[in-house]
Each structure stands twice: as C-alpha cells, then as structure tokens.
Amino acid sequence: MPVRQLPETIVNRIAAGEVVERPASVVKELVENAIDAGAHRIDIFTDGGGRRRIGITDDGDGMTHADLSIATDRHATSKLDDEDLLQIRTLGFRGEALPSIGSVARLGITTRHASEPHAWSLSVEGGDKSPIMPAALSQGTRVEVSDLFYATPARLKFLKTDRTEAEAIREVVRRLAMARPDVAFTLAGEERAPVTWAAALPGPAGQLTRLGDILGAEFRLSAIEVRSEREGVVVEGFAAAPSLTRANALGQYLFVNGRPVRDKLIIGAVRAAYSDYLPRDRHPVVALFVTLDPREVDANVHPAKTEVRFRNAGLVRGLIVHALKDGLAREGRRTAANSDGAVLDSFRPNFAPNFTPRTNTNWDWRRSPSYPVGPMPSFDGSAAFAEPGQAAFDVGTPTADVRFEEAPNADLLDRPLGAARTQIHETYIVSQTRDGLIVVDQHAAHERIVYEKLKASLARNGVQRQILLIPEIVELDEATVEQLLDRAEELASFGLAIDSFGPGAVAVRETPSLLGKTNAASLLRDLAEHMAEWDEALPLERRLMHVAATMACHGSVRAGRRLKPEEMNALLREMEDTPNSGQCNHGRPTYVELKLSDIEKLFGRR
Questions:
Q1: Which of 172, 156, 142, 168 has its CA nearest to residue 62?
Q2: How would residue 496 be classed by pLDDT, with cut points 50, 70 and 90?
Q3: pLDDT class for 82, splitting at 50, 70, 90?
C-alpha cells in the first residue's frame, strides 16, 4: 500500500481520540480553560452522562473577536508567551482541546472580552466552522457541547452507562475543585441533584474547608495539616489520621503546581509514611499539593496531562514521606482509633420495641406515678451494645478480679492516659482520667513501645544484643532456612545472629536484649513468612522496619499475662512518652477512650 497524506478531518479525529476519551475528558479540558481564563465562578451542566449535552459557563476574561476566530484551530493557544515548554504555568498549553472537541461533536462558543462592545459566538460541527456572529453575554465564556462522538460513532460503543459517565465527570470536577478552593463550582445535571462548592478563603483554613466539603465532614475532623520544604520544592496539604482509612488508594489526591495528577509516586510515598500506622489492606486519605519550579517537572508526558515527570523524583518522594511522618508524629494523640468518635458508635443502644428510655436526668423511674406494678418492660441486654464493637471483649467469663481498693493518685488522673484501675481478662487495662476512662490493649501498647525502642536503638548505635550461652537450634524447612540465611546480614543489624546448622536447621547465637527471653523458633518462622512477600526492589529501610515490627511483636507483653498495679501504670507512662503510641506497628489501635459525657449519653443521663 503506497504512502499517502491523511485528510485534515481524519488527522483531527485521530488527535481527538488522544484528548477526548470520554465526556469527562471534555469537562476537564473546558473547566481547565475557564480556570486559566481567571474565572472566579464556573457552572457545569451535563445531560445523558455528558453524551447528549455539556455546558460550561464561567466569568473569566473571555475572548476577543480575533481570538475566537482562531481558538478552534489546532495548536492555537493563549497559554504560552514563547516557545519554552519548560515554563508552563497554566493547566492547558497545547491548543488541542477545542479543535479536538469540535471535530467529534457539535461545539458552540459564546464569549465576551471586556474590551469588546458585545459578545461573539462561533459553532463547529464535525470540524466545520461557522462564521462568527454577534451574541448576547454579559461576561466570560459559555461553551456548549452536544451529541458527543456523533462524528465518530465507533467511539460511542465504548462509553459506559449514563450514570457511570456522570460519576466520572463528578470525579473530574471534584479534583479541580480541590485544586482551586478560591473558585466557586456548581455541578448540575439530570443524573444528579445540583451541588455547589462556594469559594473558600485563602490559606490552609480555606483549603481544608473545600476539602471537607468534597471529602466529607469525617475527613475535616480527622485531617492533620502537613508541610515540608527543601530546595525550592514545597509539599503541603492535609492527611487523615489513621482512624480514617479506605479499602483502596482512590482517596489519595496529588496536585502539582495546581494540576490534578495521578502518579504512582504518591502511592508508594504515602504507603511508606503510614507503614507504622495501618494494616496492609487499608489505605489513608490524603490531599497533597506540590509546588516547585515549572522547569523541575514535565507536564507534557501524557496527552490528557494527567501524569507528570519530576526531574528529582527522589526529592519529592522524600518530602512527601517527611511531611506525612512529621504531621502524624506531631498529632500523635489524634491518631488513636477513637479520635473521631467511632468508639461511641459501637455502643449504640438497641432497645426492645416496647421500651423507650427517658433522657431527663432528673427523672427517677421508681418515683414515677406510672411506676408499673407488674413486670417491667423488656430490655434486650444481649443486643444493647452493637457488634462488632464488643466482639473483642467477648472472651468468656472473667479470669481475675484485680480491682484497686485505694483511691487513684490525683497526679496520675491528670496524665493523658490516666491512672490504672483494673485489668480485665488479663488483656485490657482500664484507666481513669479526670473526665473519662481509657481501655488499653496491653500487648498492642507494649508492641509499639518495643518497636520504637528498636528503631531508636538502630538509629543511634545499633541494637544491643545478648549472646546465648548455648546456641538455640531451630529446625525449619530448607527453603525457609535459605531465605533466612540470605537475609542474615540484615537480621544481624537488629541483634539477631544466625548461622547455618546443616540442612534444614539454623543456630541462633545472639538475640536483641530488648526482647528478653523469646521463642526463637516462632520468631524465625514469622520473619521467614514476611520475607517471602518482600520484593527485591523494596528499600532496605522498609525491609528493616518489617524485621523490627516482627521482633517487637515477639518481645512485648502478651495478652493473658496478669500485671501488677505498678506495672500497668508504668506501661501507661511509657505509652505517653512513646511516639505514635495510638497504634501498634500492625495498625491496630492500642487504646480507646470514652469521655464521661459519652458514658452519660450511653445511659441516658444527658
């Protein structure tokens, strides 16, 4: 087949396929144009999931007659002052959006510039432009797109349902609204009730207001402000406390110089920063804004401009990890699992149908004129407190009664974790504070303490080790032995010295002194299981932290061990002095807290 030049209409449709993937792509390009035009308010309307109609109205600068005449030509843009593609300070810059949309749909543009006596309008159908005509519009630009992909019917077959396409549009607008809290957005359409995000005040407070409006009040309550800066790169934003998580990473948002992007960099960096706080199958919610010199980032690596490439990706990743870790450590008390009131929800009463509790605190049912002579109305005690909140406490009959007879020390009541009062089921410590009570999981709490001590010791001068008088021989399968011996040097850095002891056996010669007397066989089996999941690309630091976490689990106070009152109080004091003590290193909460006011609500006293 001979080589031939493609017609311009075909060229435009091929180019449109790269830019206009679905209705959400059209909304993204048009809203970005409105933002670049200096709009303070943008209204978006869609019909049929954007397939039948998309309308974007803004109050930006608008275009003159001369600008409008070439705005729908390919590669015509007002975003570049010169030909330097390294100095991109706008969301759009290629000049492909309008001509691409006009080549596959019916496009109408009405715009007015402040210097013009009236507005002008232009329409494009399948790439054919109409003459420019006078029109009526007070300010800004209004763009109408209808019958999307009518000129390329094959593309219609690949669109999803109207509801799915409408949700994709909503997600695009949400991201752009998060990036620009100073701009008011309204999103309406037949598929949804109208939603408006009012313009927020400048600064972190306004940014958090917009993020809360979009991500929900739960995020606003648990959000921790984060910031880090180095070498002209600034990372700032908000991260949710570990108590607020998702089942996937879709709740992680990254903005680079005001541009919403999806980048694998943030997923790895966020996972590293939260590795000490969350279980493996949970993901945090974060919104991070990266600001840097445009020359240090390439926004021209993807046709839809949804991906970027950093000149110094390691610096950006390091700043993200540092900002998140610093914020989480600073707000250590807020990282507890009960900081958002979730604990109280676990105790919601579930009364029997005929029983209505009274909420008047001065009411005494025994003095009521209507005090029943017969049997009292039934109260379903077994269902009074909702599952699964109580499942952890359902461990059979009480195994010990270690209630303190003496009054708690007044000084201890003022400490953050209060004074220990009792131990329940030899697993949970109950402490009293001035305004409530705290339930501590003794194993999870001590696990975090040991873990932080291991990390600190490693960073300071290496982990102190104890030499076993008689090496302990641990028999394992040959594959497991090989895995352990391959990592022997890494294990030695934590004070665990092992040698080969023939086929299928390992000799343990030294153990970390922090762990005290430990079950070497169980520890080595757990370490081998974790190592089997490691990728060779996993950084050494991450691998070492996995080792530390496993060792900490084996070296901490076990559930089922009876503690003396002084031991309980000592554990509480160590928790107060230990960073990140709200969770164990597996992401489970170490304690839950109930304020006295919360307890009174449970019993209808307020």
A1: 142
A2: confident
A3: low
Given this model, what pLDDT does residue 198 score?
Answer: 94
Q: In the prediction, which pLDDT does 348 show?
A: 57
Q: How many CB atoms lie within 10 A of CB 200?
A: 21
Strands 252-256 and 286-291: parallel
| Relative orientation angle of helices 8-19 and 97-104, to the nearest 10 degrees | 110
Residue of 171, 185, 181 lying closest to 42 (CA atoms): 185
Q: How far apart are CA 497 and CA 495, in angstroms?
A: 6
**What is the three-class DSSP state of 163?**
helix
Q: Looking at the domain that runs over 8-197, which CATH code has it been given?
A: 3.30.565.10
Side-chain half-sphere CA neighbours of 366 within 13 A: 0
d(CA 441, CA 449): 13
Give CA angle at 342 (340, 348), nearest 5°: 140
DSSP 453-515: HHHHHHHHT---EEEEEEEEEEE--HHHHHHHHHTHHHHHTTT-EEEE-STTEEEEEEEEGGG
pLDDT, residue 556, reads: 56
pLDDT band at 540 (very low <50, low <70, confident <90, very high): very low
Question: Would you say residue 258 has pLDDT above 60?
Answer: yes
Residue 184 scores a pLDDT above 80: yes
Assigned fold of 204-335: Ribosomal Protein S5; domain 2 (3.30.230)
Q: Check residue 50 and give left, alpha or beta (phi > 0: left; psi -120 to 50: alpha).
A: left
Q: Among candidates 87, 80, 36, 85, which has minimal Cα distance to 294?
A: 87
Average the pLDDT over 286-306 and give the result: 82
Q: What are the residue ranges spanned by the domains of the chain?
A: 8-197, 204-335, 403-597
Tokens of 389: 């909140």
Position 97 scores a pLDDT of: 83
How many angstroms separate the CA atoms of 200 and 185, rounded? 11
How does the average pLDDT of the chain come out, rounded?
A: 79
| Buried/exposed 215-242: b ≥16 CB within 10 Å, e otherwise | beebbebbbbbbebeeeebebbbbbbbb
CATH class of 403-597: alpha beta
